[in-house]
Amino acid sequence: MPAPLYDALRALADTNPLRLDMPGHHGKPMPGGFPYPSDMDFTENGRTGDLYGEDADAIQEAERLWAERFGFDACLFLTGGSTQGMHAGLALLAGAGRAIALDRGCHRSAFHALALLDLTPHFLTRPWLGLEGITGPISPEMVEQTLSAHPEIKTICITSPTYYGVLSDVPAIGLVCHAHGAKLMVDAAHGAHLPFLGYEGFQAADVVVMSAHKTLPAPGQTALLFANGFPLDQLQRWGAVYGTSSPSYVLMASLDGARDYMEGAGAARYRETVRLADDLRRRWPSLAGRDGLVLDPARLVLTSPDGFALGSALRERGVFPELADTGHVVCILTCADGEPEFARLEDVLADTGLTGPCPPCPAPPEPPKAALTPRQALFAPRERMALADSAGRIAASQIAPYPPGVPVVAPGEIIEKKYLAYLREIGYNNTVVDVTRRGFREGGRP
After folding, report:
1. pLDDT value, residue 76
2. What is the SS3 assignment for 240?
3. Mean of pLDDT values over 290-315
4. Quick one: which of 150, 160, 161 has its CA closest to 101?
């Protein structure tokens, strides 16, 4: 009998690709040679513990060790990725039907949470960094202005670090939020490695979501929900709403194993990765930190006059980066990568001859007007049409090119001609868009 997915993955793995994307194990054995242990693939049986249970068990002890290591009051294991954590965290902090201030560059899971919880968003915009061709950090001043203008907002949600490795000043933003009686949630999906490198900024937030599988040696879907000021049972309550009632014990055990590894050899390996990444940045065109711009030290963002061409050239030569856009190629470097992997990457880069300064990219325009709430847009009848013909229609899904990595048009917003012109100018290559059916209004009636 055919096994097409297995066969395709097996064939790709047999080519020995250089994997610079997620999961962060990059195809290497898990800590301690962790294979897929069918004999450990249990469910709740009275001996294995219960992820959402009240009794102290091995799962809760493993979660406690994570919380203690990262400086939080509580930690919940997630087997549905950071998406599960974003939904659970926003439900915990914001509840339903309230106003929230949201980083417009948040992951689409946050936009889905807006709709599911019927939240009213007030978007925080990031400054445009023309030299780098990306958006910069969320500033504490912007958060202050937003909370002062909208005292009804009691939840702030930002992303730090971004896909490009940009870190916002979480401690300063946390101080602003707490001075206004608001809570801060950080989508740190790409930052689970940072505390093992000495970064302590996440502790200033009330809720933090991290994807272990993105930057740590852990399998896909493994993630963590941290909180200060909330007991574990509240994390369990909302984690159970958005997660499966049959969480994988193998995935949870791998989270336990990943932390144990990072407490010892893994942290040292990561520090070596940071050193090698820094050396590589000095030799190849790439994003680098400067005054006011703090970057993840392990994230390698190569620049190129044609990032799409560089990304394709790398993949043709067996190197798989995480993302390519018009002027950048993002590589996720982890403790799974050492001198052999860096040397291989450099040999391939030299062979392509495609690195260099990124081309000029115009700043994204001001966000469009909203005609529907996120909830109305999600549940509206929709149709797919040519993007070029969509002027005047209401978006039913995000139009979010990289760069800027933020939605030019978000669900419920009106697609105007000026946004289509911007998308053409930056070379956006999606030709279709989902829009709400013409005449739709709240309640599904024209």
Report:
1. 97
2. helix
3. 95
4. 150
